Amino acid sequence: MFTNNCPDHISNNDLANPQRRSFLSKALAAVSILFTGFVLYPMLQFLKQPLAKGGTVSRVAAAKISEMTNDSARIFRFGDSPAMLVKTPEGELKAFTAICTHLDCTVQYVKGKRHILCACHNGKYDLNGQVLSGPPPRALEEFRVFEEGEDIIVSRT
Hints:
Helix content is 22%, strand content 32%. By secondary structure, the chain is α+β, with helices and mostly antiparallel strands. The protein folds into 2 domains: 12-47; 54-155, Rieske Iron-sulfur Protein (3-layer Sandwich), CATH 2.102.10. Strands 1-10-9-4-3-2 form a 6-stranded antiparallel sheet, with no helix packed on it. The chain has a 4-stranded antiparallel sheet with strand order 5-6-7-8, with no helix packed on it.
């Protein structure tokens, strides 16, 4: 028949009372669930599409006329995205999205060189937003610029 092969220091009472094993099983399950949550939550947040909040903005006052000198630029908010207002050396006002079309880095105007630079991968755009060199696959989105009183207004074309 069945013989009890337990060591002498474990009594039959301990085997009949599984509270210790039950506690360890529940604790291990709780730790596993927490670990899974800590791993999955950031992954799901990364994969989730952000809500487009700034799609309704159609025009914005980017700067005052007196603030812009020839051969200068200014970054401003256009909805939820950065945009750039450029005053060329000839005094012409132009506005573009300030987001590189390659990997969404912020671009900047290079004074004296007549181009817009994405420093992430050395992408260069001319003052019409067209790609001069580097990895950007397409031109910068251009916005319409006009003066209204003392303000420089930028709007979607």
